[in-house]
Amino acid sequence: MGDGLREADRLAARLRLISAELHDEPASVRQAHVDAEINRALDGRSHAERRAILEELKPMFPRGWGEAPAESAGGAGGARNDTIDPEAALAALERDAESMSDSERQLVAARLAKAGYIAPGGRVGWSAETEKRLRDALGTRANGPLDPDRVASLAAMLADAMVKLDRAAWAAWQEIAPRSKVRQKARFSDQIVRFVSGDEDTPRVAVEGDLESTRMLAALLIGSTGRSGKAAWDHVRVLLPEEIEQASGARGKHRKLWAAYEESAATHLSSHALEGHMKSFVEKFVQDVMLGRTR
What we know:
Elements: H1 3-21, H2 27-42, H3 47-57, H4 86-96, H5 102-114, H6 128-138, H7 148-176, H8 188-196, H9 204-236, H10 241-248, H11 254-268, H12 271-290
Helix pairs in contact: 1-2, 1-3, 1-4, 1-5, 7-9, 8-9, 9-12, 10-11
């Protein structure tokens, strides 16, 4: 397909959309919009390019296309313009969809929404890069077509679960290590609202960074529980008789041995002491990994 024909096809699709959108408006209004769209498409092109596009455009619009619908005998207007071929307009959109830029897709979506063909604020499909990232995340079995409604439903479920996990993980960390240098930069729920709303100050990498921080924190909190048993044992093993005997040097001297035991028990053998020791272990374990320290 030549450049002139390709551009003419894309322009024709936009002109058909304009005509469909403004079919209830007077012919003069529709013509003004059509002229403006054609001028916009030809602006900045050479004379030869303009001529090639217009020549390819002519046969796509038979004489009388886009004229005002005839009024009935009673003077009521608004009848459908039968010269518009919906199938041809749809085919042109489908043919040009892959070559459209994101801004062109958004323009088409906005006009379709204004004409009542799609819900206001809706987007037509998603970028090829986003679809590839989604398929990569889903694995090799996601080779067939994707249902947009179910993709959106899945995103809603995952967002809800992630917001709850984010709150729980950071709340637990705050209780364990209130003075730690590891801190949450921003609430995840606020971040995703800004991101999906198109906030330019919240790029994808920022959301990915927050997700990774929460994922790592949750994984480390879970992983540290498997190691905390050894930490607890290290804490209470000083209460073993042999440990006390070795520390006090009071072998066979029961009074002195018991006094040493009471002193050690007062320091170590309490729920507060054991809880504090385990929290210290978890804090150190998490910080060493998240702050890149060598353990």
